[in-house]
Amino acid sequence: MYEPVAEHPSALTLRARQARIKRAFDVCLSVSALAVLAPLILTLSGLLLAVQGRRLLDPDRRIGQNGVPFSRLRFRTSDTDGVTPLGFILLRTNIDEIPQLWNVLRGDMSFVGPPPALAPAEAVTIKPGLTCPWQASDFTGREQLGTYVRGWTLRADVAVLLRALMPHGNPRALT
């Protein structure tokens, strides 16, 4: 089910078939989400232009799969005076992270995976994710990466995404 590259959990990798399934899921979901969110993205872009000026995105340099650097995209939320009122709303609602769907479509990130690393020493052999299993209450911390990779299934990723989208990670909170 998994191919250990070394003893450390961060050196685990998905099998080729699993990686293809995960990538196909990421592409289909990111294209769909970008299409559905296009009106919101255009509206926010117009608001950000009017309120904060020309630079809409705030690229954040992160370390991705196998130590390859990439620019994680986010809507700009601050100016020289700090976080703007519109930026505060975007941060509070996580709407500032919508441009990361482009990172998923480009292949820099996945929907589910470990958080993007800040330093090459933290890099792992799978793509960083918009959310990770331990943020959605599936695991207790980053040390559980090996458990996630060894037991990876598309069904598990979908479950993590659904929990991440639910208020407080609880699907019953909507009822």
Commentary on this structure:
This protein has a two-stranded antiparallel sheet. The protein has one domain (3-163). A hairpin with a 2-residue loop joins β5 (78-79) and β6. The chain is globular and about 45 Å long. It has five helices and eight strands; from the N terminus they run ββαββββααββαα. The chain has 175 residues and is an alpha+beta fold. It has helices spanning 16-52, 85-93, 100-106, 145-150, 154-165; strands at 3-4, 12-13, 60-63, 69-72, 78-79, 82-83, 110-112, 129-131. The model is unreliable at 1-7 and 171-175 (pLDDT under 50).
Structural key phrases:
globular; two-stranded antiparallel ribbon; single chain; disordered N terminus; 13% strand; two-stranded antiparallel sheet; disordered C terminus; alpha+beta; 5 helices; 175 residues
